[in-house]
User: Fold this.
Amino acid sequence: MDLKEKLTILTNGAKYDVACTSSGTSRAGGKGMGSALPAGCCHSFAADGRCISLLKVLLSNACVYDCRYCVNRRSGDIPRATFTAAELAGLTVQFYRRNYIEGLFLSSAVLGTPDFTMEQMIRVLELLRHRHNFQGYIHAKAIPGAAPALLHRLGLLADRLSVNIELPSEDSLSRLAPDKTKGEIFASMGQIKGGLMENSRELTLYRGAPSFAAAGQATQMIIGASPETDYRILTLAADLYRKYELKRVFYSAYIPVAEDSLLPSVETKPPLLREHRLYQADFLLRRYGFAAGELLSEATPNFNPFLDPKGNWAVHNPHFFPVDVNRAALSALLRVPGIGPVSARRILTARKASRLGMAELREIGVVLKRAQYFILTADYPTGLRLSREAAVRALIDPGAYSLGREQLRLFSPAGPALPDVGAAANTSSPLPMSAGVGVAVTRPPSTFPDVRAAASAKEATEEVILCLTQNR
Ligand code: SF4
Assistant:
């Protein structure tokens, strides 16, 4: 098999891996070749619409494990290929020199044993770093179950390490990925965390100490292959951030690869809107100071498909508003729809000079279309007192109806893509909002409109707004 064929097979096998950002590291090339910048390595769009990082590739897809959701599983009928270390290192350098890529995302199927696979990956990175003097960003996927010494060596060569948690519960893991165990996955995460802490102590004592995974660790979770709720997924993500100090949890909408009685049918579309809501909520955990239990609960375990999690929280917590932008603490400003971490900090700085009105907030970058219903300003000290319908209309997420949530091919015929509100919508929590922000009303969850019956996205939007505002 020639190199081009191998490359086709092994980049195709890697496209389902979404943990591919290169943020978090900064290293000038110096005398070597390449550099790693916080801005990240270059990205491209695969035929299925996913944003991917080049060169994102597997060392091998000849897996001895049989994870039922995976295209590379042992029982899958696909062409197999394995790079030698020299081939993959050479390709990376050639692609870098041609300006195709700025870094490498290296993953692999389990080739024989976890230890053997990790040794091969380490060999690739050693060739890149030591023979080719490649200083570009490298993200390597560690194989759970490999020896701690190998994981440590991999961390000394890569900028970021990740260990895939794969599924949101141990039960789903044992059903769908019987060769993997929660214990091995968490042990690897724990070891990486220990390595990072030890390395930070070493770097404090001796600046020239070698870096261990300078951009930290990440993980990936598959969404929609197993029955866990959004609440379960989000609380797990929050635990991972807390216990293992992960930089990112990546959520990957499940793309059916084969008919299997334990998995959604091959006709099932990837739950991209759900994936999007999880990313939005994840940002709220990491950057806005929200806790998972504030966004969802056992009683309301799934995200509202029509409102983003922050907007949904705002309309469910009217007692928190209005927030006075000239007095409120940073943590309160961050809870206002339309105010992000950057604009909240700008508000804190700007209000030292003068009291802020709507015009100043607009200049600062606040999205007034969303924020105006929830704030007090110098020119509106008692708020705008706008109608409940106007507030809901401003917060409703047009993305819930957009084609962008579909897993489209470039030349797919465009048609209306209305969200499957089914289970998620019908378990979404009531909207306690009446005329003006502040009076709670309760909408029975079962009355959520099924917008799939609507003739157009516009008609569906009106139906949803009517439902949210009239409590029917
Ligand atoms: S270990 Fe499982 S998820 Fe990874 S390549 Fe093998 S079958 Fe796929």
Remarks:
- The beta strands are 43-45, 51-53, 56-58, 103-107, 137-141, 160-162, 217-223, 248-253, 323-324, 375-376.
- The domain at 3-270 is CATH 3.20.20.70 (TIM Barrel).
- The longest helix spans residues 182-205.
